[in-house]
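Encode chain A's predicted structure.
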Amino acid sequence: MPFVKMEGIGNDYVYIDARDRVPDNLPELARRMSDRHFGVGSDGIILIRRSGLKGVRHRMQMFNADGSESEMCGNGLRCVAKFLYDRKLEKQETFPVETGAGVLTVTVTEQQSHVAHRIRVNMGPPRFLKGEIPMQGDAASKCLIEPFMVGNREFIITALSMGNPHCVIFLDKPPTDDLVLGFGPQIEKHPLFPRRTNVEFVYKQPDGTLLQRTWERGAGETLACGTGASAVCVAAHLNGLAGRKVKIRLLGGELDMEWSEQDNCVYKTGPAREVFSGVWT
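Encoded structure for chain A:
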């Protein structure tokens, strides 16, 4: 089975062209291919499929490294756009892609000889109601700048959905390994989040750039998280730490983010790169 390894600022996935044939037992395939010692090595796998929606040709389906299916991945979606555009499976520079979080629009902003280098993704609007995230509690209420106890540590959190759940925590100093690796998995699986959650630890640097580390649901700490950066962009504005446009620095690189006042959607711009291709036997 042919595959392509791609990455968006270090958020790496194995991409499979499944437009004509979908592999069997996708959760097991995701676990095996994602294994960094005995497989290809990745944060998960992403299938490129045909969409059955009117006016939409392409569909993205993703599985985390632990085999769990996720709604979408912003960095992964940029790579899906590059896969389609570079191979001339999509000749337009702006086109829609169906994801588990709805239909999202991608735009190739930098290309050379029909090879995409930078891509802008309309990540859609943030959702704040607990019933939409989802979180335990009154489904019609919100969790904005609220205290949250984990063990003997209190955090101030802002929770929202960008098509998948996020718990954003702002810190007064850069996040440490003890914080991210120690509390990340505890918050991910906390009963407050019935479908688990992604967790972002964020520090505002003196130049105004936001430094983000993410514990991803089903994958552990990753070098980047596009939906996480989208959630951080929104939460930073709500917390008075940034305007509607902000640069976010992740372990794998930087993303330019904007929470548009005009349409309430979050826009994410960053690179996408093909690493290598191969055949899985």
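The domain at 2-121+270-279 is CATH 3.10.310.10 (Diaminopimelate Epimerase; Chain A, domain 1).
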